[in-house]
Amino acid sequence: QSEDVVAALKMGANDYVTKPLDFPVVLARVQTQLALKRLSKLKDDFLRIASHDLKNPLTVILGTVKMVQRHVPPNSTMSPEAHELLSKITKRAVEMQNIIEDFLDFQALQDGKLSLLKSNINLNDIAHDAKDSNNEYAASKEMEIVLQLNPELPAIQADSARLTQVV
Predict the structure, then answer these.
(1) At what angle do helices 80-110 and 23-71 cross, to 10 degrees?
(2) How far apart are CA 142 and CA 165, in angstroms?
(3) Which of 136, 43, 138, 35 is nearest to 84 (CA)?
(4) Distance between CA atoms of 115 and 133, rounded to whole angstroms?
(5) Nearest of 130, 109, 132 to residue 121 by alpha carbon
(6) In angstroms, rounded to a whole number, what is the distance separating the alpha carbons of residues 153 and 100?
(7) DSSP code of 74?
(8) Residue 75 — pLDDT band, cuts 50, 70, 90?
């Protein structure tokens, strides 16, 4: 019988039950498999979202680098516009670092130990940051991002980094 178990595990099985059935053991094993399936889906969802979140700032970084290359020919002095573009590159790279840190926070989320750093947040500022970080990408697609904001929105208590990531 142990040879059958070993063969089944080598073929991809991740659990087994023996006869005669011990129903509490079978129930515990089924519950464990269901929990593993939920965790696997949660991980897949997280990786899909995080991969998307990494792709956006990387697209902005690469687009901004191309703009700097067009505006600053070799052996020339860098213009204020080029310096501004480099600041945008830095900002997007920091955003990518934060997303990578979010990967590391995933384990804390699973353990129920993820903490939020709440502060007073102006939602209009978050919207402006999102617009600013995507203007070059929109322009490369011959699009323009237009904001219509309510200047009287009250500040809210939120985690700025998490909220920015969602937007």
Answers:
(1) 180
(2) 24
(3) 136
(4) 26
(5) 130
(6) 31
(7) T
(8) confident
Q: What is the pTM of this model?
A: 0.44
Query: How many residues comprise the chain?
Result: 167
Q: How many CA atoms lie within 13 A of 157 on its CB side?
A: 3
Residues 63/137, Cβ–Cβ less than 8 Å: yes
Q: Six-digit token pair at 156?
A: 């809210």
What's the pLDDT score for residue 111? Answer: 67
**In which element (H, E) is residue 5 found?**
helix 2-10
d(CA 138, CA 49): 21
Amino acid at 72: V
State mean pLDDT over 128-151: 88
Q: How many whole angstroms separate alpha carbon 20 and alpha carbon 27?
A: 14
Continuous segment of H or E residues that includes residue 158:
strand 156-159
37-49 pLDDT, tens digit per residue, is 888 888 878 777 7
Token representation of residue 125: 């500022």
The whole-angstrom separation of Cα 77 and Cα 75 is: 7
